[in-house]
Design a protein that fits this description.
There is one protein chain. With 210 residues, this protein is mainly α. 67% of the residues lie in helices and 4% in strands. The N and C termini lie far apart (44 Å). It has nine helices and three strands.
């Protein structure tokens, strides 16, 4: 990601499926590079869910966890505090991704996203209300922290839950958000247990050496 100047951006139909929205953003936001701030503005009230989803996928790649998990945690804090739309500080809002890369991501994910979207539909309930949004936000922060901290097999379990939860947030699906929240919490507990065990082993090893 590199710095990119802000652009004036269009707004899209909030009822479009996730994969179509991603492609529309990639195709219609001006410029070869799309700034995070521009994407957030273009996505409107779907920005939190889709941005968390887009940031979670590359955060699984070695060496990129710190780059992508920190903005994801910032989104989580804002959701947890009740923000309706993301507000990035300038240095994060200007960070950008190549339009070609976003289109490639849309193509690569279109098949499985289309399959998932068949089971995701608007279902109002507790998890799609204000309290549910705040819960999703703080779980996103917890998951982002687990992705950021180094540990064997500690990234994938919470990230999988976040992806499911984010899909539910985008489509206002109470059931999917609830399932994703349970998966995220379980994944974070697993990652926490692994990290605590590694810390305990390291402490015991230091004690033996000393």
């Amino acid at each position: 990601m590199d710095a990119s100047p802000p652009h004036e951006v269009p707004h899209f139909n909030g009822s479009a499926p996730i994969s179509r929205i991603v492609r529309q953003v990639a195709e219609r936001v001006p410029g070869e590079r799309l700034a995070l701030g521009d994407i957030a503005e273009a996505l409107g009230d779907r920005a939190f869910g889709i941005l968390i989803l887009l940031l979670c996928l590359p955060a699984l790649l070695p060496g990129l966890a710190a780059v992508f998990s920190l903005p994801m945690m910032l989104l989580g804090v804002q959701m947890g505090l009740g923000f309706r739309q993301p507000r990035f500080p300038g240095f994060i809002a200007r960070q950008s991704i190549r339009r070609e890369d976003l289109l490639r991501m849309a193509d690569a994910s279109s098949t499985w996203l289309a399959r998932v979207e068949r089971f995701v539909k608007p279902r109002p309930g507790f998890f799609t209300g204000p309290v549910g949004d705040r819960m999703v936000g703080w779980l996103t922060v917890y998951s982002g922290l687990m992705i950021l901290l180094p540990g064997p097999m500690t990234n994938a379990p919470p990230a999988f839950g976040i992806i499911v939860m984010a899909l539910g947030v985008v489509e206002s699906d109470n059931r999917v958000v609830g399932i994703g929240a349970a998966l995220t919490f379980a994944g974070c507990l697993f990652a926490t247990a692994v990290l605590l065990f590694l810390a305990w082993v390291g402490w015991r090893a230091v004690g033996l050496v000393l």
